[in-house]
Amino acid sequence: MKKYQDPRVKKEFYKIWETANKIFCNGKIFTGSENHKLLASVSFITIPSILFYVFMSPEFAKNGQNGYTVVFVLIQLTIYLLLSITVCMDPGIIPKIRPEYEMEEELLKVPQKYSKSDYRFIVDSKMFTIKAHQFKLKYCSTCAIYRPARASHCPSCDNCVVRFDHHCPWIGQCIGRRNYVYFYFFIMSVSFMLIFVFGTCISYIVDESKKRAEFMDTSDAVSETIAHNPVSIILVIYSFGFSCFVVGLWLFHSYLVLTNMTTNEYLKKHWVVESKNPFRRQNILKNIVQVLTCISQLKFLKLRQSVYEPKDYMQSPIHTQNHVNEANDSFKNKDEEQVQTDNRNKNNYISNNIQMITEIKS
């Protein structure tokens, strides 16, 4: 067995995978390609939150309204949790070719390369049909894979992503099949926070102005309330301005969820035809379930998977995991052929010896 011991050096995949994504803690933490944008978004959430705690919470405490602060803390913790999961979760990257990439049974029939170890296959046709729609299977030359329907290549992260929605410029991460549900609830939570801050600050200004209006004009009472706590009006303006964008974004994605459509498909107007979206379910509830659930079995990226070091036997750098797998398969096949050849020679040697012994006895 020592004769066939593999001399190649194995490494974990994240050490040789060339990608724009950031990898930390020996492949345990995976983030998007633009973390500086993530930090900017976190600051947009954290700075006004600090102002709320420092200037508004004490005022609410004086009026016996501590519940406002408790609700705000819960919303903020939810936002940070959902944001962390969205950024650190694999969005559905397809690093190597497998047939398990889609939930639709029809999509499992798309042509792929053939490999015995991964049960891949290849056919001549590059077209397939789903609910009367003709889909042309696109080959990604960068990732060296045939992309399934609704998958697309993100130029920012340099990856093909299953059910690619968009590359979010606010958090610097791709939004795909696996992390879309967390992204959706993240923007929903931010929308609730902005609406909550706007409502509580307006309520504070109105209540304090009414108290002062007993001794002065209403306009003077409002001016004195704002002068006493100017942060309240700052938070009103801030929350109103950002809510126009964030709440609108949440409503837009709610529409996409109800219609089972992606941002990429909406912008490119893929389904502006009479037969409409073939992925749309029979009713709204089924669309919601299909989009916001069933993501656990879509894990393809294995950053800590052991692969062979490519430098010794490949002339070009490794860009995708399927390159490594194909190289591993080729070496595996060579080893198998060598073993078969040796076994064949051994069998021939034994048969020749048996024949010689037979002849001597005869």
UniProtKB/TrEMBL annotation:
Where is this gene product found? Endomembrane system
Give this protein's Gene Ontology molecular function annotations: protein-cysteine S-palmitoyltransferase activity
Q: Which InterPro entries match?
A: Palmitoyltrfase_DHHC (IPR001594), PFA4/ZDH16/20/ERF2-like (IPR039859)
Per the record, membrane topology reads: Multi-pass membrane protein
Q: Name one GO cellular component term.
A: Golgi apparatus
Q: Is Acyltransferase tagged as a keyword?
A: yes
- Keywords assigned by UniProt, alphabetized: Acyltransferase, Lipoprotein, Membrane, Palmitate, Transferase, Transmembrane, Transmembrane helix
**Biological process, per Gene Ontology:** protein targeting to membrane
Q: Which residues cross the membrane?
A: 38-56, 68-89, 181-206, 226-252
> Per the UniProt record, which EC number(s) apply here?
2.3.1.225
- Provide the Palmitoyltransferase DHHC domain boundaries: 135-269
Q: Which reaction does it catalyse?
A: L-cysteinyl-[protein] + hexadecanoyl-CoA = S-hexadecanoyl-L-cysteinyl-[protein] + CoA
Similarity field: Belongs to the DHHC palmitoyltransferase family.
Q: What domain notes does the record hold? A: The DHHC domain is required for palmitoyltransferase activity.
What is the protein's given name? Palmitoyltransferase
